[in-house]
Design goal:
Radius of gyration: 12 Å
Number of strands: 5
CATH superfamily: Beta-grasp domain
CATH architecture: Roll
Number of helices: 2
Mean pLDDT: 95
Strand content: 15-25%
Distance between the termini: 30 Å
Order of helices and strands: EEHEHEE
Structural class: alpha+beta
Helix content: 10-25%
Oligomer: single chain
Number of domains: 1
């Protein structure tokens, strides 16, 4: 299991455990992290699992693929350089201790 932290809009920090190889969206949704809605079920179409990378080990996150980048650009509320969709970020040992802030709004 990989431990990561999600910071909810009200500042609540939620440490969750994710199964290695699975999208972080599942762990966040299963832990009831506020703001992770996951409407499209993980197909990078809705941006309801949009988060900002606050802290991650160097090289732990690959660059977003085109589908993810397009969804962030056109669907995400207030996209930033550090925006990611949690349905597209898979848990790995390299992400242990990473911190993500849940984006608010749609």
């Amino acid at each position: 299991m990989v431990r990561v932290t999600f910071v909810e809009a009200d500042g609540t920090r939620r440490e969750v455990e994710a199964k290695e190889g699975e999208p972080l969206m599942y762990a966040a949704r299963d832990a009831d992290v506020a703001g992770i809605i996951a409407e499209c079920g993980g197909s990078a179409m809705c941006a309801t699992c949009h988060c900002y990378v606050v802290e991650a080990p160097e090289g732990a996150l690959p660059e977003p693929l085109n589908d993810e980048a397009d969804t962030i650009e056109f669907m995400a509320h207030e996209p930033k350089e550090n925006s990611r969709l949690m349905c597209q970020v898979k848990a790995s040992a390299a992400l242990e201790g990473a911190v993500f802030a849940v984006a608010t709004g749609r």
